[in-house]
Amino acid sequence: MPGPLDRNRIPMRYSIFSLAAQTLKGHRGWKPAWRDAAPKPAYDVLVIGGGGHGLATAYYLASQHGITNVAVIEKGYIGSGNVGRNTTIIRSNYLLPGNTPFYELSLKLWEGLEQDINYNAMVSQRGVLNLFHSDAQRDAFARRGNAMRLAGVDADLLDREQVRAMVPFLNYADGRFPIQGGLLQKRGGSVRHDAVAWGYARAADRRGVDIIQNCEVTGLSIDNGRITGVETTRGPIRAGKVALAVAGNSSRLAAMAGMRLPIESHVLQAFVSEGLKPLIDTVVTYGAGHFYISQSDKGGLVFGGDIDGYNSYAQRGNLPVIEDVMESAMALWPGLGRVRMLRHWGGIMDMSMDGSPIIDHTPVEGLYLNAGWCYGGFKATPASGFCFAHLIARDAPHEVATAYRLDRFATGYVIDEKGAGAQPNLH
Amino acid sequence: MRIACPHCGPRDVQEFSYLGDAKPQRPDGMDATEAAMADYVHQRDNPAGSHRELWYHGAGCHAWLVVTRDTRTHAIAAVETMAQARAGAPA
Questions:
Q1: Which sequence spans correspond to the domains of chain A?
Q2: CATH class of B2-86
Q3: Is domain A7-92+95-119+193-262+354-426 in CATH 3.30.565.10, yes or no?
Q4: Predicted TM-score of the model (pTM)
Q5: Residue A173: which of A213, A214, A133, A116 has the closest Cα?
Q6: The complex's ipTM?
Q7: Considering just the CA atoms, what is the radius of gyration of chain A in Å?
Q8: pLDDT of B36-87, one tens digit each?
Q9: A contact residues 382-421, partner B, Cβ 8 Å cutoff
Q10: Do A314 and B71 touch (CB under 8 A)?
Q11: B42 vs A249, A314, A422: nearest CB
Q12: 3-state class of A311 per DSSP?
């Protein structure tokens, strides 16, 4: 149920006609995609964190629940955090029942996202291919593929020759880690991540949400166990409900409410090569090391690997992991040795103790938590916003997010896809 | 990042393995409540700033070290052996 709309300040709808009209005007008539709002004294819902998840939450609060007296506050600018620091992959190839339906909802939302928010996010379902290199790994991947298919998710187990037909340029002569096949999710792929932030921001703004940038939260106002608002660098803001969507900094915000979380912040590095002609038309992950690669529409090869492995808020990493990623790249695809690196960057991940996220109430009434996305937050953006909005609006978890409880670490119902235990740098 | 191992001198971070926050202390044996054990296993302060953490020098002296490091800059302020840390040597 959409909320009331103020027709006078709705920006134009993007279409072939608006594009043609602007072309004739030399593209001088485009308006900013969203208002740069100043904070009002009070809101029904205040979403802290103007990343993908926070903006999606605000959008779905407005579009699904008719709650439009909402502000998103962001300490930097829209797109400056992890929504612009990931490697843009989307997929729903998860094994465990707590995860599979959630990520499949996310992939379905991705499939309809551009029409829903009237924004070209370049959703490209070019497939995600997970390679395996041993009999044991094939068994594990076959099991995961079967679990996916039982949950209604597409999965195809490919043999070596089927993989070779898709990606003939990989190293098929590796004696130590021979490519034996792969698990392919054809509906996986990539999305232009900046457009996700901008598209959700614009769509939320159209429905009346205030997007407040350069506004850092300095404290949470809590009265008798109930949240009443926040203190910010742009003054206090009162709110009936406050929603934290600040992955990377969740522990810092939670500490303002006197909470400790089952989370460590870690730095994850990502890499882009110089622009190249079309070279790889899918997403490939290496099964013998942590490495994955795809190609952006601009031509750069986008790839990444492991987190650095120690607590960090620095948004930059160290050389050993860069070396490790490049070694994996060369092992999988020796032709990459001719490619030059263009740039790399780091983002801060909420590494949770079981490798899975949290979408739940907190012990503080009216304070909601969306955290612990590890390095899988980007693909989850639509479902995270959808389910978080559901939780905030109805005070009950969405049916696909019931397992993402904050208390699961105490009760033992952890969702540990890797079986690595409570050691965040191993997830 | 280089860690100045008290036994081996300054060494590349690749020689070390990271465990995590040095603060949590395992509750004592059978006396521990479930809540205390869950807290020990899962809950972390995760500060942005000075952090005392455990590193293992696997490619060197095989000692566990307590490193005081700023998580915002990765600057290392102190490296102690476990014996020094247990004796309460200043960080």
A1: 7-92+95-119+193-262+354-426, 128-188+264-352
A2: alpha beta
A3: no
A4: 0.95
A5: A133
A6: 0.95
A7: 22
A8: 999 999 999 999 999 999 999 999 999 999 999 999 999 999 999 999 998 8
A9: 409-410
A10: yes
A11: A422
A12: strand
